[in-house]
Write a structure and sequence with these properties.
Elements (H helix, E strand, L loop, with lengths): L15 H8 L4 E5 L6 E4 H17 L7 E5 L4 H12 L3 E5 L5 H10 L4 E4 L2 H11 L6 E4 L12 E4 H9 L13 E6 L9 E5 H10 L11 E4 L6 H12 L3 E4 L5 H8 L3 E4 L1 H16 L3 H24 L11 H32 L6 E4 L6 H9 L4 E6 L6 E4 L12 E2 L4 E5 L13 E6 L6 E2 L3 H7 L6 E9 L5 E6 L4 E2 L5 E2 L1 H8 L5 E7 L6 E7 L1 H10 L13 H5 L6 H16 L10 E6 L19 H7 L1 H9 L1
Parallel strand pairs: 1-11, 3-4, 3-5, 4-8, 5-6, 6-7, 10-11, 10-12, 12-13, 13-14, 25-26
Antiparallel strand pairs: 1-2, 8-9, 9-19, 14-15, 15-16, 17-18, 18-20, 20-21, 22-23, 24-25
Length: 638
């Protein structure tokens, strides 16, 4: 199923843009309102710049099958460099300019790059000392800064390259779908990065098939905030741009303004982003008068019952597949009874929340991790559709996705076209029956060619029949939806032999307004423990309501200061005990071993900047454990 037939027989991703330029010549393709000056490029203008960039590279000696390292972050120039390098016949290795210099040096060296494209002089300065060890022939700055003329490696800025490209004709390079398009190095949580080899065919599979998930309209606004170099955002951008959408770049600083200013129809994000939006809304609600808070909470409670009844009636509740006909009939009656109150809540409360989000959202596309149940519920209640997808860098990345017509909350949806999913036993590798939990295997045209120069790692990841081992645990519903339950390597094994998947419990606990982030610990212990980053704003509000004058230390306070602060006073400690107990027990599938017996509060949030999260905002569990090992040991000794 392809909305644009001209794409059907393409064998190279770079061929998409000539077709798009003809179909949508005057539609704005890329818009960066926050750059100085602001940038707007129509599809016709974008394709012209791609050709210029590619011709400039060829004029400087870049040959087909060369490798180019692209070290930069979101901007129209990133896209021009990405697709311009492919149009020239090269493959690129991509990474953020914010990444550690040693990691960047490793990628440039490991990818066998002969050309380096960097965001600006600052980025080049960060890794310049490594460049002499690598046989680089060319460096391109995506800025207009004046290059260092004394640099022994030929260096041009963006404008110089584009001027050169304008004076030379692009020599077309024919690429097959099996040819390498890009190397994306998995940030992972442990070990050296591995370069996932994604072919043109891998990426084109996403362009040709993601319309099975959403069908955007020409000219739809798409707000882009995730790293463009990451496989999830990247493939989404390729697809949405192939459909004639307008990609609007934003960032954390301008996000709240841009969402109201541009009123986007679509947005791609990770659970942490949706959680931050949710928490911002909750904060606004907490600042309302007591009467307004009670009214809002009344309607949310009504709507919670309404959406659950609707799910049961429509056989779309993950926990009620075995509901009887009479149960579904009763749920249908409840839906009819509650619908007027839910509608009133929409008019008085939810519509205002949607307006604060721009008022036009048709789709929030969520990936890069599981979406907590309370977030799934919240966005359904306010009628902002969230479509959760699943996949990995190694699968280009989407293998499964929920759709508007089949949005089973709590799941990652059904396989997208031409994709197979198989669940196998963790120990034996044998396929298990539907509904049984095991390791998720994926097979399809989007599965990578392998890890660059790592045949042993490739053989370990992809079996001879083409099944890729995701390392994720999950099960398949009767309707062929995939439900992810955790990571095989993240499993915590208690000393009683019980295996605990931390992610679902963490997702349940961060529903508490007082818990911003959390990581479970407890390997080989009697019970689970947790490292908790508290929400100090919510705690302050709670303290005022309790007539407590609470004071909290700053993020960089010493451990002794934190322990002696109000955070460790009995009222706050009791509050967290109650919150953890309630949220864990309210979680579907609760077991006694899920209880969190001990916890420690830490003030420094987990982030990619401090090395405790990946660039896609997944907690690096081994890194966090190592950093707080003494605290964790003390937690279980007390």
């Amino acid at each position: 199923m392809t909305t644009i037939p001209e794409y059907t027989n393409l064998t190279a991703l770079s061929e998409v843009w000539a077709i798009a330029a003809k179909k949508f010549p005057d539609i704005v393709a890329l818009h960066d309102p926050n750059s100085k000056p602001a940038v707007k490029l129509t599809y016709a203008e974008l394709y012209q710049k791609l050709q210029q960039f590619a011709a400039g590279l060829q004029a400087l000696g870049v040959s087909p099958d060369d490798k180019i390292s692209l070290i930069a972050d979101n901007s129209p120039r990133w896209f021009i460099a990405d697709q311009g390098s492919m149009l020239a016949g090269a493959a690129n290795a991509v990474r953020s300019a914010q990444a550690d210099k040693n990691e960047l040096a490793y990628i440039v060296r490991d990818s066998d790059s002969s050309t380096l494209i960097v965001e600006n002089q600052k980025t080049l300065d960060k890794i310049r000392s490594f460049c002499d060890e690598i046989p680089l022939q060319l460096i391109i700055l995506l800025s207009d800064e004046t290059p260092n003329r004394d640099d022994p490696i030929k260096t041009l800025n963006f404008s110089q390259l584009m001027e050169l490209g304008a004076k030379n004709s692009l020599q077309p390079v024919k690429k097959n779908d099996t040819d390498l398009a890009t190397l994306i190095y998995t940030s992972g949580t442990t070990g050296q990065p591995k370069g996932a080899m994604l072919s043109h065919g891998n990426l084109l599979h996403q362009v040709k098939n993601l319309d099975a998930v959403i069908q955007p309209k020409v000219g739809d606004q798409v707000l882009s905030i995730l790293p463009s170099w990451h496989s999830y955002e990247r493939s989404a951008e390729y697809f949405l741009l192939s459909q004639g959408c307008t990609l609007v770049y934003t960032n954390i600083r301008n996000f709240k303004t841009d969402i109201k200013r541009f009123k986007p129809q679509h947005m791609v994000g990770v659970p942490r982003l949706w959680d931050s939006i949710y928490e911002g809304i909750q904060k606004q609600l907490r600042e309302k008068s007591d009467t307004q808070q009670k009214i809002a909470q009344f309607f949310f409670n009504i709507s919670q019952n309404f959406i659950l009844s609707r799910r049961i009636a429509d056989n779309m509740s993950l926990e009620h597949f075995d509901a009887s006909a009479i149960d579904r009939f009763i749920a249908k009656l409840k839906t009819i009874f509650l619908a007027p109150l839910h509608g009133l809540g929409d008019k008085l409360v939810y519509s205002k929340i949607r307006e604060g989000l721009g008022g036009n959202f048709e789709t929030l596309m969520s990936g890069g991790g599981s979406l907590a149940k309370h977030l799934d519920d919240f966005y359904e209640i306010i009628n902002v559709p969230v479509l959760v997808g699943y996949g990995l860098t190694e699968t280009s990345p989407v293998s499964n996705a929920r759709t508007h017509s089949h949005n089973l909350r709590g799941s990652s949806g059904q396989p997208i076209p031409h994709t197979e999913i198989k669940i196998v036993d963790l120990d034996t590798g044998e396929a298990v029956s539907r509904g049984k939990r095991g390791v998720v295997l994926i097979r399809g045209p989007q599965v990578m060619q392998g890890y660059y120069k790592k045949p042993e790692a490739t053989a370990k990841a992809i079996d001879p029949e083409g099944w890729f081992n995701s390392g994720d645990l999950g099960w398949i519903t009767p309707m062929n939806d995939l439900v992810i339950t955790g990571r095989a390597k993240d499993t915590i094994v208690l000393n009683n032999g019980e295996n605990i998947e931390p992610q679902p419990i963490e997702d349940a606990c961060v529903r508490s307004p007082y818990i911003d982030q959390m990581m479970l610990v407890g390997q080989d212990q009697k019970a689970l423990g947790a490292l908790i980053v508290p929400n100090l704003d919510a705690l302050q509000t709670w303290g005022k309501n309790q007539q407590l004058n609470l004071t909290f230390p700053s993020e960089d306070a010493s451990r002794e200061t934190i322990i002696n602060s109000d955070l460790y006073g009995k009222p706050v400690q009791d509050l967290f005990k109650q919150e953890l107990k309630r949220e864990v027990k309210n979680r579907p599938g609760y077991r006694a071993d899920d209880q969190i017996k001990v916890f420690e509060l830490i003030l420094e949030p987990f982030s990619s900047e401090n090395g405790m999260m990946t660039q896609t905002l997944k907690i690096k569990r081994p890194i966090v454990t190592e950093r707080y090992q003494g605290m964790i040991n003390g937690m279980f000794e007390s």
